Amino acid sequence: MNHEKVLELRKWMEKNNVDLAYISDASHIGYFSGFDSNPMERVLALFIPIEKDPFLFAPGLEVEDAKASSFEYDVVGYLDSQDPFALIVEEIKKRYGAPKKMALEKNQLVLDRYLRLNEAFPATDLSADLTPLVQELQLYKTEEECQRLIEAGSTADLAFEIGFRHVKPGVTEEEIVAEIEYELKKKGIKEMSFPTEVLAGPNAASPHGTPGKNTCKENELVLFDLGTIVNGYCSDATRTVACGKPTDHQKDIYNIVLEAQLKAQEAVKPGITAGQLDKIARDVIESHGYGDYFNHRLGHGIGTTIHEYPQIVGGNDLEIKEGMCFSIEPGIYLPNDVGVRVEDCIFVTKDGCVPFTKTSKELIIL
User: Fold this and answer.
1) Residue 63: burial class (beta carbons within 10 Å; 0-12, 13-18, 19+)
2) What is the signed CA dihedral for 129, 130, 135, 141, rounded to 10 degrees?
3) Which parts of the sequence belong to the Peptidase M24 domain (predicted)?
């Protein structure tokens, strides 16, 4: 149980006259409770009252794992044949009565579950939104959280090393993905933080492309975008490498993106804004005439989920502060030609930043 974060939550609840907080996002449940799980379509919920003990509601098949986690309070389970929300309502009434005001994660809770709560507690005020608070709490990482992100970053480095070994003419994107994930699983790394992308040649011109039967070819670039989950924390990194000797055009595009990434990373320091960082990278790419082909934000927060608050994007006046963690990932994507992205996730220090991945960002020729 993350008592420090629960204490911060309860301070917010007291300030906003909230009796009960309902955490519904699985990654946020892990963040507060210490129990990490992917319930899929089943119901996983954490209820934290202003004063009494919390309880965790979980699918029956996960109850023993939840009890074995760092969550030291009651775990209530349900069978697939049971109505989970009928049981949740029963538990809330038994433990806390009818709350006057309940806070929800409004950016996550599905409408059906909201309606069930509203029906069961018609006099309860459900207007309080936990989303901004959770974002604020996750924005600044503790030393322990930073260490977990570093560990996840080191496994991303390992994934690059494995993938680069398999880049050869005639090898498909799917085959390289399979080799990466198989080798990682053999080393005990069970889960990727998002579907691994290996995109060769013109396929890399789609920022979120899907690996397929397309093969690596001589004198083409290959983009690797990947991440792992270690102890509940994510990594996310991108490298673009060359299969054989790259053309001058490919090298030019690569060097522009690398310059943009390095300049933005070097500019990270407390006091600069998210929008200013985006502009630093974007100005480099625009100065070479490729501004229209950098068509996404510069970065995003990272932690227990792959995309967290904040967005590192133009117009965002959020001031960067020590303890924040986010990605810096400019790219150029020329349709039917070439795609390049270079990405690191970084931890902000009082003097600058520290990247979580160590794989070289110079153009590697394989």
Assistant:
1) middle
2) 160
3) 149-350
- Decide if 70 contacts 79 (C-beta within 8 A): no
Question: Which 8-state DSSP code applies to residue 201?
Answer: G
Question: Where do the H-state alpha helices sit in the chain?
Answer: 3-15, 26-33, 63-68, 84-96, 111-120, 131-139, 143-165, 173-186, 248-267, 274-287
In whole angstroms, give the CA distance from residue 89 to residue 87. 5
Find, among 237, 53, 51, the residue nearest to 158 by Cα: 237
Give the closest residue to 315 by CA, choosing from 347, 276, 344.
276
Strand-pairing partners, residue 334, are 338
**DSSP string of 55-120?**
EEEEEGGGHHHHHHSS--SEEEEE-TTS-HHHHHHHHHHHHH-S-SEEEE-TTT--HHHHHHHHHH
Other beta carbons within 10 Å of 119: 10
Look at the chain and count its residues: 366
What are 176-225's pLDDT values in tens digits? 999 999 999 999 999 999 999 999 999 999 988 999 999 999 999 999 99
